[in-house]
Amino acid sequence: MDALTQLGQVGPLVGGVVASLTPDDLDRATPCSAFTVQGVLEHMIGGATLFAAAYRGETPSEPDLGDVLAGFGPAMENLFGALTSPGALDQKIAAPFGEVDGEAFARYIVLDGLIHGWDLATATGQPYNPPGDLVAEVEAYAHQAVDPLRDGEAFSAAVEPAPDATPIERLAAYTGRRPLS
Fold it and tell me: Considering 11, 13, 36, 109, which has the largest number of Cβ atoms within 10 A of its Cβ?
C-alpha cells in the first residue's frame, strides 16, 4: 500500500481520537514521555504546518496553537492537501533529519501520526484499533527508519512489549513507548 493510502487510513483514525478529546484531557500524561495530550497536539500541528510548507516549497508559517482541539483538523487537512498535490511525492523534502524523497517522508508522517494517535488514545482511555495490514506495513517501515532517529525523545530505545500486546502496542513498544501505569 502506498503512503497516501496509508495516510488516508491514519488521518480518520487519529482524527476520531482527537474529536473525542475535551479540554479536560489536555493535561493528561501520554506514553510519549516528553508530551502531555496538549503537547502531542501542539507537536502534530507544528509538524503538519512545517511539513505542508516543505512539500509546497514554501517558508513555513507559525502554527496556530491557541486552540489545539479546533486547530488540529485544519492543520491535518492542509498537510494532506500538500501531500496529494501533483508531484509532491516525487520531490526531495528538507526533513528535520535531512533531505529525503517525498514518498519516504510521507511514510515517516504516517508512522508519526499512527504512533501519536496511539499516544492520545492511551492517555485518554480510548479504543485504538488500526487495521492490521496498515500496522504491519508501518512496522516494516519503522524497522528500516527508526534506529538512526532514536534520540530519547521522538524515539527511545525499543522496549519489550507485553506477551499479549496487540500489533499497534508492539509497534509502539518498538518506538520506545511504554504503557502508562
Answer: 109
Nearest to 125 by CA among 24, 11, 3: 24
Query: What is the pLDDT averaged over residues 14-25?
Result: 98
The model's pTM is 0.94
What is the distance between the alpha carbons of residues 146 and 1, in angstroms, rounded to a whole number? Answer: 20
Domains in the chain (CATH in brackets) are 3-174 (1.20.120.450)
Provide the 3-class DSSP secondary structure of residue 64.
Answer: coil
92-95 and 98-101 beta bridge pairing:
antiparallel
Report yes or no: 90 and 10 within 8 Å, Cβ to Cβ: no
Residue 33 has pLDDT above 90, yes or no: no
First to last CA, the chain: 35
The one-character DSSP state at 86 is T
Structural contact between residues 70 and 45, judged by C-beta atoms closer than 8 angstroms: no
Q: Measured between alpha carbons, how far is 150 from 153 in angstroms, rounded to an integer?
A: 8
